[in-house]
Amino acid sequence: MTITEERQNLYFDLIDQLLSCPNGQEPEILETHPELLDAGFIQTILQVAAVFAHQGNDEGAKFLIHVARELSKQLGLYPEIPEVPAKE
To answer: Is 46 exposed, middle or buried (0-12, 13-18, 19+ CB in 10 A)?
Structure first.
């Protein structure tokens, strides 16, 4: 999937909003932009998180990875791994 430059910029703007919003308001921000919540957005979040990690911004990277994981679950892109019953 090719992401247009315009869409990429919208993703970056949304990531900036998530990073600068008060703690706990992230779901509200995401709900106001349902058109951007897709696999491309998650990929972009992870790319920004990787840059943060390389720059030593571990807190920012962990936050973004958490957001990406939760969004992936909500969008059905991160399948829940069923627990394997213990063999008796």
So the answer is: middle
Helix (H) or strand (E) holding 68: helix 58-74
pLDDT digits (tens, 9 = 90+) for 24-82: 999 999 999 999 999 999 999 999 999 999 999 999 999 999 999 999 998 888 666 66
Structural domain span for residue 59: 37-78
Q: Which residues contact 42 (CB under 8 A, 6 or more apart)?
A: 68, 71, 72, 75, 77
Q: How far is CA 76 from CA 9, 14, 41, in A?
A: 24, 20, 14
Whether this model's pTM surpasses 0.70: yes
Q: Domain for residue 61, yes or no? A: yes
